[in-house]
Amino acid sequence: MKILNPTFSNALQRMSAPAKALSLLAAVFICACSPSTPDAKLYFSANPIGPSANIYSFSNDGSLIKHTDDSKWRDLELDVADNGDLAYISNWHKDFKIDLKKTGETFSLFLKEKDQQPQQYTNNGTSNFSPKFSPDGSQIAYIKRAEDHRELRIITRADRTERSLYSSKDILSIDWSPDGTKLAVGFVSETDSQLLVLEVASGRPQMLFRSNLKPDSGSAKSDLNDDLKQVAYVSWAPDGERIAFIRNPLYKGVRQLFLFDYKTMSSRLISNPDVQVQDGIDWHSNGDTLLYSALVDYKFYYDETVYKKVYEGGMQIFTSTTSGETKQLTNGDHLFKSPVYSPDEDTIAYIYGERLGGRELVLKTMSADGENHTKLYDRVSPQSSLIWK
C-alpha cells in the first residue's frame, strides 16, 4: 500500500474522530485503486440487523454504497460484471409473514443492473446458488438444487432464455474460462468426483481429474492418493492455461490446493501439505500467484465442561506461486478469510475475526506484503464473499 504524505497526516491530527475515520477510508481506496480503474469498488455482504444480509460496497473515494436494503432478507454469493451489474442469491419473497413451522428457506437468483432496482431472475420453487457472470456479462451460470440432484444452468440475459448444461448428484463449484467458451465444474456422482470442463456452446465434457469415492476396501485413506476426495472448488487462471482446484477428503485428511496444467495435462499440490485450504481463490494478474486462506494447527471439539464448541488454531492468508513457493502473510489464533487483491494489486482486503468460530466479523485491508492492517467496516456477514473490481 502507498504511504500517506506528511501534509495529509498532519491534517488528520486536527480532525474529529468520525471525520478522521472517513478520511482514512478514502485514503485507503484512493491508494488502492489505480487511475485505470476509477470506478472500482470493494463489494461485500453485511448484517445491518440480526441475521439479515445486504450487499454493500466501498468506492475508491471511500464512500459506502448500499446496493440492497431490506432488513428481512439475506443477499449473498454476489458476483459483479465489468459494467457494475450485480448477480446474487436472496431468500426474498413476496408477502412476507413469520412462519414458525417453516424449517427451511429458498434462495432465488437476482440481478441488479447499475442504478436499477433488483430483478428476480429465477422462481423455480427450489434454491439456486453460485451465480457467475460470463466474462462479457451476457450470460449467467448458476447451480440449481433439485430434489435428488444439482443442475448447472445458463441464462442468456438478452432474451432471458435458460438451459441446463449439466446435472449430477451434487455440483460444488463452477467457474468460467477467461474467454467465456468453457466452464470448469467440480461435481460429485454416486461413484466419483471430477474436475470437468464443459464447452458452453455444445456441452461437450472433458474430464481433467477424477477421484474414486467408492474404492476397494483395501484402499488407504491417505492424502497421498486420489481416492475419497471431492473436487470442492475450482478457479481458472487469468491466461486460461491452468485451473486451481481444492480436494476435500471424505475422512479426517487435509483440504489441499492443486493446480491442473493444460500443457502437461497433469495436476500437482501447491499448498503446504498440512494446511486446510478454504474456498475462495484470487489470482494475481500475472497468472503465477494465487491468494487464499487456510486453517493452520486447526482442532475442533466439544467441551462438555462448559457445554460449547471449541475451535483451536487460526485461519491465515497465504500466497502460492505456480512454481511451488508458498508464503504465509498473517499469524496468530485469529480468522483471516476470503482475501482479494485490489485492482492495482498493492493491497489485500479480507474478512477478520478475533477467533475461529466467532460471529463478529469485520472488513479489513493490508498491504500486499501483509503489513499496515486497516479496519474498514463492522458487522460483515459470516457468509460474505469479497469482490474488488
Structure description:
The structure is a single chain. By secondary structure, the protein is mainly beta. The chain has a domain of about 160 residues. It is built from 2 helices and 29 strands. Strands 20, 21, 22, 23 and 24 form a 5-stranded antiparallel β-sheet that branches. Strands 3-2-1-29 form a 4-stranded antiparallel β-sheet, with no helix packed on it. Strand 23 and strand 24 form a beta hairpin.
What multimeric state do the chains show?
single chain
Low-confidence stretches: 1-22, 99-103
**Largest beta sheet, briefly?**
5 strands, antiparallel
Question: Roughly what percent helix?
Answer: under 10%
Number of helices: 2
| Shape annotation | globular
Secondary-structure class: mainly beta
| CA-CA gap between termini | 17 Å
Mean pLDDT score, rounded? 88
In total, the number of strands is 29
Please compute the radius of gyration using only Cα atoms.
21 Å
- Beta-strand portion reads over 45%
Task: Sum this structure up briefly.
By secondary structure, the protein is mostly beta strands. The protein contains 2 helices and 29 strands.
